[in-house]
Amino acid sequence: MCYHRRMRPYPYGRDLESEASRQFQGTPASRLLLALALGRRSLTLHSAAFSPPLSREAALASLRRANRFGRRPSHTLDAP
Question: 4 lies in a domain?
């Protein structure tokens, strides 16, 4: 249970713990298979959002571009 600075019980901590334990059920292999299946499904949805639908490779390239778009270049890599 989480506590506030005045040491009163904070009721949301128990909810978070139960939610986290519910999400991490099963073996690591089954969780990995589920993550891969969700990734395939989201890639299919992303490619279907375009008209005409993108190929798998084009959808992956589009997602990679979108992922890099909001990032600033690192100054530490450019430093001598």
Answer: no
Dihedral pair phi/psi, residue 48, rounded to 5°: -75, -15
Q: Is residue 79 part of a domain?
A: no
HSE at residue 8, side-chain half, CA atoms within 13 A, is: 4
SS (H, E, C) the chain: CEECCCCCEECHHHHHHHHHHHHCCCCHHHHHHHHHHHHHHHHHHHHHCCCCCCCHHHHHHHHHHHHHHCCCCCHHHHCC
Q: Could you tell me if residue 1 is inside a domain?
A: no
Q: Give just the sign of the alpha carbon dihedral 7, 8, 10, 13.
A: positive
* Structural domain of 33: 10-69
User: Does residue 21 fall inside a structural domain?
Assistant: yes
Q: Write out pLDDT tens, residues 35-70.
A: 899 899 999 999 999 999 999 999 999 988 887 776
